[in-house]
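re: that chain from earlier
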Amino acid sequence: MNIRKVTAALWATVVASGLVAASATPAVATQELIEATPATTAIVAPAPGHSQDWQVDVRNTTTQTLPVVLTIEGDSAQLFGGSHPIHVEIVDDSGEVVVSGAAPSVLGATVELDALGAHEERRYTARVALPRSAGNEYQGASGTLDLSFVASAEATTPETGPSPDDALAHTGGSGTTLALIAATALGMLTLGAVLAARRRKEHA
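^ sequence. v structure.
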């Protein structure tokens, strides 16, 4: 048997095994950790002493408990500025006020909220109010208010262990590595056996 041909065949087997293992690695899909609806709301200046309310539903789309922070941004120099800027208030579904203050003091602020449990949904009520002392300069003013809810997830937590996606990615990577090691070891053992047999025949 030609040693060069055997060696080439064995290395071809090793490479092919690696390609098969790599193609079998599962793809890991990404997903949004939380959903918030609506994220942006158009507001029109209410009459002095009056307010405008709306609800924002925030849902955890994962199987983990997620810490959540809220960032508030807005676009309206007229509503959010001047001597009597609009007042912003955010209340959670238990009635706790999580944000309250004149627009200049809350815009750009980041507020830590209660964590959301696995698949938990929470409703927040947003309210903007124009102070009674506001003048005619706010009449008909409009703008937008953006409530950005952001969550972060650890790859592994003591309570839940690896998330399904993380476990899937880890399993796929390990499978590829093990397949390559096994194919290489098998090739080397076979090559050693062929060489040993050839030497015995030559010395016979």
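The two ends are 16 Å apart (CA to CA).
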